[in-house]
């Protein structure tokens, strides 16, 4: 499973409809938060994401609307008896942030916080995927993130394997894993029955930013691009000054990068209850686009059937 749940989709300020920024990704049962605005833990409860499996929080930048939910969330997890360490990644200053977190108030956390500073281009390697830190353009040091899954084995030609005399069972899985097998003194190589390696899935999350090169490059052929879309095009000048993007700019980048799907988020409070203008302006440029809503869930499937 690769599921994205939008916990907070508002820009800068909470509104009755939208919490500040937070996205949770469930990848095969592991939870990762990208930004954690005020109220994120209650949104997690409403979305029934759970908290126990949360391995990491990736912070795009230290504006309050992206981090204020962290103190409450970690206190709740500690209260529930969490003992596993929590990794918090972000632009430099994450160490200082973690130190402040653990000295807030009188509570003592029951688990460790591993603070990890990231610079643009840094790659966090996990078993089956990586998280790449991307250089974004905002008013303070900031990062975007790309979740990139490893290549997967190619398609297994079951029929051909049977024709070559291989019986379904353990030999099938050996072949699929790339090993050769022997049947009646004859060697059958993996390449004979397994197609070329296939790409995994890719999700890019920009955080707050102007449209920029690193996001464009990382978004090439992404399955999902979640882009800053704070303002409409009549606010272009303010988008430049406040270092955010318009929905039109997000759509242009999505088109150029040839992404499969674009989700607009970080919606300014002025469009909070009616983001139609943002959507319409984006749709003129890139068709497969939606505006995120709080508690919206999106599953990201493999492009080809398994
Ligand atoms: Zn923001
Ligand atoms: Zn910001």
UniProtKB/TrEMBL annotation:
Keywords: Endonuclease, Hydrolase, Metal-binding, Nuclease, tRNA processing, Zinc. GO terms for molecular function: 3'-tRNA processing endoribonuclease activity; identical protein binding; zinc ion binding. Its EC number is 3.1.26.11. Zinc phosphodiesterase, which displays some tRNA 3'-processing endonuclease activity. Probably involved in tRNA maturation, by removing a 3'-trailer from precursor tRNA. PANTHER family: ZINC PHOSPHODIESTERASE ELAC PROTEIN 1. Zn(2+) 2 binds at residues 65-66, 208, 266. Binds 2 Zn(2+) ions. The active site is at residue 65. It catalyses: Endonucleolytic cleavage of RNA, removing extra 3' nucleotides from tRNA precursor, generating 3' termini of tRNAs. A 3'-hydroxy group is left at the tRNA terminus and a 5'-phosphoryl group is left at the trailer molecule. This is Ribonuclease Z. Its cofactor is Zn(2+). Zn(2+) 1 binds at residues 61, 63, 138, 208. InterPro entries: Metallo-B-lactamas, RibonucZ/Hydroxyglut_hydro, RNase_Z/BN.
């Amino acid at each position: 499973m690769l599921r994205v749940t939008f916990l907070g989709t508002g820009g800068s300020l909470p509104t009755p409809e939208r919490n500040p920024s937070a996205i949770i990704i469930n990848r095969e049962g592991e939870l990762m938060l990208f930004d954690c605005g005020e109220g994120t833990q209650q949104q997690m409860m409403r979305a029934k994401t759970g908290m126990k499996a949360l391995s990491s929080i990736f912070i795009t930048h230290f504006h309050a609307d992206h981090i204020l939910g962290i103190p409450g969330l970690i206190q709740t997890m500690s209260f529930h008896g969490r003992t596993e360490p929590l990794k918090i990644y972000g632009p430099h200053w994450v160490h200082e942030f973690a130190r402040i977190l653990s000295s807030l108030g009188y509570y003592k956390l029951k688990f460790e916080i591993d603070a990890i500073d990231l610079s643009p281009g840094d790659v966090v390697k996990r078993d089956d995927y990586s998280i790449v830190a991307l250089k974004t353009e905002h008013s303070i040091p900031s990062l975007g993130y790309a979740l990139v899954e490893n290549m997967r084995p190619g398609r297994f030609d079951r029929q051909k394997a049977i024709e070559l005399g291989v019986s379904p069972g353990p030999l099938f899985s050996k072949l699929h894993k790339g090993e050769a097998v022997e049947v009646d003194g004859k060697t059958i190589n993996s390449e004979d029955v397994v197609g070329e390696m296939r790409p995994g899935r890719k999700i890019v999350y920009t955080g707050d930013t102007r449209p920029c090169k690193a996001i464009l490059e990382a978004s090439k052929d992404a399955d999902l691009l979640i882009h800053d879309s704070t303002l409409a095009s009549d606010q272009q000048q303010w988008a430049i000054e406040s270092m955010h993007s318009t929905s039109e700019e997000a759509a242009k980048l999505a088109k150029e990068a040839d992404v499969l799907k674009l989700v607009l988020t970080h919606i300014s409070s002025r469009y909070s209850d009616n983001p139609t203008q943002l959507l319409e302006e984006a749709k003129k440029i890139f068709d497969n686009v939606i505006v995120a809503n709080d508690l919206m869930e999106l599953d990201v499937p493999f492009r080809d059937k398994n």
